[in-house]
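[recover] target loaded
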């Protein structure tokens, strides 16, 4: 028998830590970010809210009726903090405006900025690398260098450490 799925009211699911042949199919954070990128591009293009976008994403593919909770949280936080995120991005853009940035790059920057600012448990270098991988797939070939420069400045401005300090190692 499969363990119960942990879902919230909008059809978002927590990533399961259960493994093995009886475990439900799990979606990695990388895949959750990819789905969030689709949602972020949609939000920028249509002006829909995070909840409207999540509803639309849930109906796009058979495996997406229940989206990863990380995807939903990321889209909702990006939507709720859009003014703050815009201000943060504008502060690190040199000779660019948000309106001049292509929609995919813009969506990647917004998601990465959201994750860097509001997910302290994820090291910034991990976030940057994950979004650079998405940029290599979905954006033009100059985009990864551009995105890397902007996100590096953002991390530097916030004095965020690349690693989370932990207690002493046990032997």
């Amino acid at each position: 028998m499969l363990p119960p799925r942990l879902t919230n009211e909008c059809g978002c699911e927590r990533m399961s830590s259960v493994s093995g042949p009886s475990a439900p199919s799990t979606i990695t954070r990388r895949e959750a970010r990819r789905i969030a990128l689709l949602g972020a591009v949609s939000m920028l293009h249509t002006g829909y809210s995070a909840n409207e976008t999540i509803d639309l994403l849930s109906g796009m593919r058979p495996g997406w009726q229940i989206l990863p909770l990380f995807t939903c949280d990321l889209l909702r936080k990006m939507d709720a903090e859009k003014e703050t995120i815009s201000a943060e991005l504008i502060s690190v853009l040199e000779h660019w405006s948000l309106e001049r940035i292509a929609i995919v790059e813009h969506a990647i920057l917004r998601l990465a900025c959201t994750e860097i600012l509001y997910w302290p448990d994820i090291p910034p270098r991990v976030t940057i690398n994950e979004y650079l991988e998405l940029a290599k797939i979905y954006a033009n070939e100059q985009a990864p260098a551009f995105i890397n420069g902007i996100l590096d400045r953002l991390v530097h401005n916030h004095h965020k450490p690349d690693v989370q300090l932990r207690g002493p190692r046990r032997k």
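[recover] notes: Helices lie at 29-46, 50-58, 69-80, 82-92, 103-118, 124-138, 143-157.
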